[in-house]
Design a protein that fits this description.
The protein has 710 residues and is an alpha+beta fold. The protein is 35% helix and 20% strand. Helix 24 (685-693) links the parallel strand 23 and strand 24. Helix 1 (16-39) runs antiparallel to helix 2. It is globular and about 95 Å long.
Length: 710
């Protein structure tokens, strides 16, 4: 009989029978620990205990190699997620970067920084400049020095939990010494050129999928449900940023990067501190010259304000930080034959021409389609009638030069007239919608021709539904573009409201969702539950989901924060008249809303068919009011403030941001609803109107005293 206390026996003293029993015990413990840690997120073992058990298992296998189990814990990393990866909500959002494509854009970026901060034109700002790695963004969370979670970027707010896979990457430390108690390290997972070539050879020899480029290979390898597959892929990691922090890493971006390096992370050796745009562009040129010899893919250089206190002042736009920009390399070029021009119809009715190309590799990617922008671009002119490409038009059969804008979107740059076929004829842009046959008109000032069919146009209806279920809108799990197309084609859904009656119509009876090809009872029930969960929706998401022209995600947030509730927003838009009236003036007074956007929103609520669709949808929803900031104690909470004239101690953008953070509404015009006007030197008609209306007017110093920031 084998003792049940084999864990207390020294490895050198174990008999073969005891060793076999101990390996069985360790396998059970380690498998349980992996399941608790990676699948259930409820570990009962500390990292030190786990590591001790694993080291003991390896040592016993070393002494008794013939006893090694086929499912040995020493060959396993983590535990597979049962049904795909679990979701991780980032404590600090993983935002994307704004892009710069030439030297002027870089100078403009520097100018925008100084303008926002109110710095003089001759004051030089320090920036870091680092290669932009073409890989997959990853966030690593450490608590008390231990790696506890790794997550992909996802949509910036929610990513995939890839902790088990990240632990297999050699460049990622499992434990840190002298690190902040909470540290989220952000960086890029990538694959070198040599490792990529070797992997593709291995894949081809095994009859498995080969990858188009190193970036795809890295992303596909990291996002494997089986961590063992990831471990066998040659992934690397560069650290370049951070998310949540319990303590600052340094006072500067460069200092923080150096701190990450001292903690054991790989950081890019080409990162430099540059003084102003001239040095930034010079370093960009140096990196670009080395691009082909680095051994890994980069697609530009990222500039970041070096002073972290300035980064905090600059803050963020809706999707990008103000203090950083990605200076992209010139897109790579290739020549190929234009085999056809197709017209796609979008959700706003826009007719978009798409070039169908003889497939060609551009920047490591096989390209067979490219955007042609609009009918003017095809004809060789801009929207004002001036020639582009020296007036050369684009015709089917032409040899065209293709490039990938920002190394992403394929576009046509030029035409080789010497190779133009003799029978090539000028392209005639359609004046009728190819989807529904309705007139396609081009309004004055619009570069795009649009279908007038509205809801009767199937292309518009489908695209509106796709937009409705997109991530920034209703984000219904299990109902993506593919399912929307299928349900629309089969007559199951035609408007957004139909989504919320899907279960009533196809959850029972002869024709049930669970009986369709590709569906089962579980997946059907999951979809119905996901739809049910979205009946309660934030106001901003609903406004964005309506797909109103000119209303993007940022504008939807702006409108939601201004009107607060659906009832207030709907009433105001219903009562508004384009170009006149109190409700129209109130809408235009919202800082960030112009006449074009305002007209689009008001029109959407007053067109009979579109309004009926909106009302039918909202009847199924519980619309949540805009989230109210905690502004308890704020002297300006709920007040409408107008800034006019020159501000000397802060820029207009900073003043607006501070006021909104304190719960105030900032308006661009003075009206009877204005509570306070802050007037600087040079204040003109707005200050006079405030006086005429008896509205309190103060100067900048009084404003700073009021908000407690003198």
């Amino acid at each position: 009989m084998i003792s049940d206390t084999t864990q207390d026996i020294e490895i050198d003293a174990l008999s073969e029978a005891q060793a076999r029993a101990e390996l069985d015990r360790l396998a059970d413990l380690l498998q349980k620990a992996n399941r608790e840690y990676h699948t259930e997120d409820a570990p009962t073992l500390s990292d030190a205990e786990y590591d001790s058990l694993k080291r003991r298992n390896i040592a016993i296998e070393g002494r008794f190699p013939h006893l090694k189990r086929t499912d040995s814990p020493s060959d396993q990393v983590g535990a597979p997620v049962a049904d795909g990866f679990s979701k991780v909500r980032h404590e600090v959002a993983m935002l994307s970067l704004a892009n710069a494509f030439d030297d002027t854009d870089v100078s403009d970026f520097d100018d925008s920084i100084r303008k926002y901060l109110g710095l003089p034109a001759d004051q030089v700002i320090d920036y870091t400049a680092e290669p932009k790695i073409d890989g997959l963004s990853l966030s690593l969370r450490y608590e008390n020095g231990a790696l506890v979670q790794a997550a992909t970027r996802g949509d910036g707010e929610v990513g995939e939990n890839v902790t088990a896979n990240a632990r297999t990457i050699q460049d990622i430390p499992h434990h840190l010494t002298d690190a902040p108690a909470v540290l989220e390290v952000r960086g890029e997972v990538y694959m070198s050129h040599d490792d990529f070539a070797a992997l593709n050879e291995k894949q081809a020899a095994a009859g498995q999928k080969v990858f188009a480029n190193p970036r795809n290979a890295a992303a596909g390898s990291l996002r494997q449900l089986d961590a063992e597959i990831t471990r066998n892929r040659p992934l690397r990691f560069f650290a370049y940023a951070w998310g949540a922090l319990s303590d600052p890493l340094a006072d500067t971006q460069m200092g923080a990067i150096e701190r990450l390096q001292s903690l054991g992370f790989s950081t890019n050796p080409l990162t430099r501190v540059c003084q102003g745009p001239t040095e930034m562009i010079a370093h960009y040129s140096q990196i670009e010259a080395q691009r082909a010899t680095l051994g890994y893919d980069i697609d530009g250089v990222v500039y970041k304000v070096n002073d972290l206190s300035l980064q905090r002042r600059l803050g963020f736009r809706s999707t990008t930080p103000r203090w950083a920009v990605a200076h992209k390399f010139p897109a790579e070029l290739a020549w190929t034959r234009l085999e056809g021009i197709d017209i796609q119809v979008g959700r706003t009715g826009a007719l978009s021409p798409v070039a169908r190309l003889a497939p060609v590799t551009v920047g490591g990617v096989v390209v067979s389609n490219a955007t042609l922008h609009n009918e003017d671009y095809i004809a060789g002119r801009d929207a004002n009638g001036a020639p582009i490409r020296d007036g050369r038009d684009i015709r089917v059969g032409d040899w065209v030069e293709v490039y990938r804008a920002g190394d992403v979107i394929p576009k046509i740059k030029d035409v080789d007239l010497k190779r133009r076929p003799a029978d090539a004829t000028p392209y005639v842009f359609p004046t009728a919608c190819p989807e529904c046959g309705s007139d396609a008109v081009r309004e004055p000032g619009d570069a795009v021709r649009r279908c007038t069919g509205g809801l009767i146009c199937p292309a518009q209806a489908v695209e509106k539904l796709k937009h409705f279920v997109s991530r920034a809108a209703f984000d219904i799990e299990g109902l993506g573009a593919k399912q929307v197309e299928q349900f629309y084609r089969d007559g199951w859904i035609a408007t957004p409201a139909d989504i919320f009656t899907l279960q009533d119509r196809y959850g029972q009876g002869m024709q049930q969702l669970k009986n369709r090809e590709g569906w089962g009872e579980k997946s059907a029930n999951n979809l119905f539950q996901a739809i049910e969960d979205k009946r309660k929706i934030p106001l901003s998401r609903l406004i964005f989901a309506l797909g109103i022209r000119h209303v993007g995600e940022s504008a939807a947030n702006l409108l939601a924060n201004t009107y607060s509730t659906w009832d207030a927003f709907e009433t105001a838009m219903t009562q508004a008249t384009v170009g006149e009236g109190e409700e129209w003036e109130d809408l235009l007074a919202v800082d960030g809303v112009g006449s074009v956007m305002a007209a689009s929103v008001v029109t959407a609520f007053q067109q009979e068919a579109e309004r009926a669709s909106i009302d039918k949808l909202v009847a199924h929803l519980q619309v949540q009011p805009a989230e109210v900031r905690d502004t308890s104690g704020s002297p300006v909470a709920g007040k409408t403030v107008v800034f006019t004239g020159s501000l000397e101690k802060m820029t207009r953008a900073e003043a607006k941001a501070r006021a909104e953070a304190l719960g105030a509404k900032v308006s661009g015009s003075v009206s009877s609803k204005t509570d306070l006007v802050v007037a600087g030197p040079g204040a003109g008609s707005k200050a006079k109107k405030a006086t005429d209306l008896g509205i309190e007017t103060i100067d900048e110093d009084a404003w700073l005293d009021l908000i407690g920031d003198a």
